[in-house]
Amino acid sequence: MPSYRCLTSATQNRVNPIAVFRWDDYYDDTDALMLAHSRLRQRFHGVTRSLLATSAAQVALFDVPLLLELLAEDRETMLEPSAFLRQEAVRREWDARTERSRVLGSAVVFAGNERVHSCIKVQDGGIDRRLWRSQVNVLLPFLEEERQNYIRKYERYLRIPFETDFGVIRDCSDLELSHLSYQAEHYFRNQAWLDLPRLQRLKESRHALAHLKTIPLQNVLGFLDC
Q: What percentage of residues in the chain have a pLDDT greater than 90?
């Protein structure tokens, strides 16, 4: 539901009149994220908590009761909340044809833009882009750190110079996850210590985010630290 505030102020002609103002942008995405982090602090930590909090905040947006309900669910539901949102839409008697209305709370100005409630969005185009934003915010830095960690750990085994379609790489630090995966698969395939399956998941995940796609749930769960 849209939020309002009542203020009492004095004017030259009246004393303490009541005025009603819209609460739009007094609660925004930063507030939602802070609330989500505080609620998850005792259950999760590190990358796990950051991703769950960001995902829940991106999905719930301006709907605080929905955010609190989502944060009480398990991590799989927080990361892939489509079924949860459809059930909530049924409870509210909303569908894809529901009017986008501030009065209903189905569309509200949030962080400067009018946003459609996720319970409607999930039935009308899906919420993949909202989930993608949360993954980009948290997992893209994580993937970059993993790339650099892998290079530091296995630098002495990596082959340089390395020829690519875009030129020759002469510095190990310039090798991307796709290059690392290629070398591990073609040059060291039987070396279990290289953890080729994990490296391939990292590569696939980085490729997905670069093309506005979400990382599959099982891959995400494999990255989480709790």
A: 61
Residue 21 backbone phi and psi in degrees, to 5: -125, 145
CA distance linking residue 224 with residue 226, whole number of Å = 6
Distance CA 49, CA 153 (A): 27
Return the DSSP state at 11. Answer: -
- Whether omega for the bond prior to residue 65 falls within 30 degrees of 0, making it cis, is no
State how far the Cα of 74 lies from the Cα of 81, in Å rounded to an integer.
10
The contacts of residue 18 (CB under 8 Å, 6+ apart) are 6, 7, 8
Task: Give the contacts of 126 (CB within 8 A, at least 6 positions apart).
Answer: 82
* C-alpha triplet 36, 78, 226: angle, nearest 5°: 85
Q: Measured between alpha carbons, how far is 92 from 135 in angstroms, rounded to an integer?
A: 28
The string of pLDDT tens digits covering residues 4-55 is 343 333 444 555 556 555 656 578 899 999 999 999 999 999 999 999 999 9
Cα distances from 156 to residues 79, 121, 129, 150, 195, in angstroms, run 37, 49, 39, 11, 16
Tens of pLDDT, residues 92-114: 999 988 999 888 889 988 888 88
With contact defined as beta carbons under 8 Å apart, do 32 and 60 qualify? yes
Query: pTM, whole model, 2 decimals?
Result: 0.83
Q: Are 29 and 60 in contact (CB under 8 A)?
A: no
